[in-house]
Amino acid sequence: MTTRLAEFTTLRVGGPAARLVVADDTDAVIDAVSQADAAGEPLLVLGGGSNLLVGDDGFDGVVVHLATRGVEVESSDLCSGASVRVAAGEVWDRLVERAVGQGWVGIEALSGIPGSVGATPVQNVGAYGQEVAETIASVRTWDRQLNRVSTLAAADCEFGYRTSRLKQERFLGGPRYVVLEVTFQLPLGEVSTPVRYAELARTLGVEVGERAPSAAVRAAVLGLRRGKGMVLDDGDHDTWSAGSFFTNPILSAAAADRLPVEAPRWPMAGDPDQVKTSAAWLIEHAGFGKGFGLPGPASLSTKHTLALTNRGSATAADLLALARQVRDGVCAAFGVELEPEPFLVNCTL
Fold this sequence. Notes:
The protein is an alpha+beta fold and about 350 residues long.
């Protein structure tokens, strides 16, 4: 029976997989990946499917679906915090929920993000002022190039804005490193790390830089995300998305100066010559408002212009056509080319 990859992605599009392997332990992951590489078969490693846009022709190769589970507390004390080793296939938000419940601090603002734990270091997932890189101690991987298990310390992962060495280094047309486990180092306590995001601080009733109870931060973030259609809901087509489809552009200071004066600008820490601006602002002010493209089959979310959504019957081609229209419109209006955040599999923008 043919398996359509639409069944495994939050955008709910994608054609058939030539072969699907469900790997529920680390040895099974390594075996499936190694066998595909030895046979010269194309390989796609699939976690929660929340950051993928798979083409309508599917994937003519081996799809390894990570179904590994396990959360192990390796050590825990007030001085160094909790060292927590987590299988790549664990659901990310379940880990965040457990962390808040057990007093592990540092990922509470990353609540509600769909997908698996193994995907978080690849993309250096971030939201509401936190990035996962701030709490990662190491990432245990299968190195396809050297054909061995390799553990990368956080410093070796080369984390950046929505990127990492794990994302950038390629081998045989895919990622060089397949994430097996992630070890987090999380301080202990009942209050969050300093709240850095102004919208979240306002919601919590604190000043930027102050702390709040971690449980309150999680509840506030979930509320904000639901208001933007960023928490998965089978009955809400605004959540049939890959989250933010475009990354916030990082521009030279000179390029940022050419934007309208009202365009958001955030200096990049440690680099005064680079400025981050808002993809959502650019999209909206280029004429693409919430719900652009309705009634569909693909449209911008009615709640958030950064999300491209499947209104129920969209194909990958429909979503790509909408993405191109938005990208080209922003480029024409502001001279800035937006870059997609999801991985594009067997399709191009």
